[in-house]
Fold this protein.
Amino acid sequence: MSEELLINISPMESRVAVLDNGILGEIYIERHHKLGLVGNIYLGTVVRVLPGMQAAFVDIGQSRTAFLHVNDMQREPRPAVDKTNAIAKDSHAQAGATVDGMANERAIRDDGVISATDDLAVTPPVVEVQSTEVVPAAKTLIQHRLHESQRILVQVTKDQLGSKGARLTTNISLPSRYLVYLPSSDHIGISQRIDGADERMRLKTELTCLMQTVNLKGGLIARTAAERVPVAKLEEDIYYLLQLWRTICARRQEVNHHQSSELIYQELSLPLRSIRDLVHSDTEKVVIDNKQVYEQVRYFAKEFVPFIYDRIVHYTAEQSLFDVHRVEDDLRDALKRRVDLKSGGYLIIDQTEAMTTIDVNTGSFVGGRSLEDTVYKTNLEATHAIARQLRLRNLGGIIILDFIDMLEQQHKDDVLTSLQEQLAQDYAKTKITQVSELGLVEMTRKRTRESLGQQLCEPCSTCQGRGFVKTAETVCFEIFREIMRCARTYNSPKKFTVVAHAAVIDLLLTSESDTVADLEYLLGRVITFDVENLYTQEQYDIVLD
């Protein structure tokens, strides 16, 4: 599989498109006035402790207070264990990857905020690193661990989603290109995406030796990119991460006397994050349409991702980079409810507050031999489209897949296997169930940021996000009932004036004219009509004269 990264820069936003064999697989968008918070580290202030929920709301200086659950807080110390036997799951590595730092670099900007975009010389081995505060084993309830106005070091794991504030953790993780440093942990982990037993053992052995050499206090996780990386590169990453953590601790002490919440560490910009996290050996090239960002990315890649350096291309043509590769068209399609399949079938995707549902339909595909064969082929094709749409739209949370009912168990197994194979390429953690008797598959996908629709769209001002409006006939009947209520309540009016949308007025004057005449006779009052083009179809007013 060949892969390309397209980086589009404008004064308003940065966008990164991932193309798999020329087809848009993922899109990342970062608007400059609304940067994401995931990975940022704050010295926050506890606003409220909720014992009933075992959670707390923490002020980190954003429009909404952030949410911290007791399960996301640092655990009490555990007895010493053999670190070589601890293997971290890839989901743990991915959680740490949301806070990646850059190898051999850091800076304190003019405003005092640590940024991961400036130079840092490699320092000698650090003998000891300041560890985070631990909580006595007896005090496991959140009301015993936190109190209002307490200052606490937290890291954002999920951006604000809709009306919900950001999600926080006190288990700080600082990833670099190859490793993730966990100051409050005590184990060495290897990404599950690294399959070879010999390579896993090599990494565990070398990381164990390096930790002993620098007397590292904390834990490490080897990311997928660490596979077959020489020990010298791993050592550089460790030195960088240790120095970065020391700087964060020093910054925390510096701002601890301030009254307001403070940003301690800020994550990289989207173009640099994409180079750090998304490129791999199958990435054929990275195309950038901005000269300044092109130079920044080249400098970053030369230092920390050298294998991609010669594959970075500056796009200078007049036609838009995203237009050339049909990314804009794919983006528009990704906001539609219906997704067409090549065979003639289609998907219907509905995203709600509680879950996302994906319905598979045969559409115009009639197949060949039998109905079961037609359904089977449609469902198989749908697994590829579903996996792509989940990544492209960044759909998360609970997802219900409504496959077309299949009779043969072998067909059900094949569809589930195909879905699992396609989801294996997803960076986000997923979990799926078996095909139920109704043809449904329940699954979850880890959600750390808003979906594409939530980023680019807002609820319709006419239907308020319902996806439908009342018919003109329904509104007419509501108007009749409202006129009758007004007639019973007020005796003085001699005339009623209905102000409504043109479609409603047209219906009142045509199909419903007999009802209007009967109502005038019954009430003994005149009813007149006035069109208001600014009203939606559901809006109306009754004016009493």
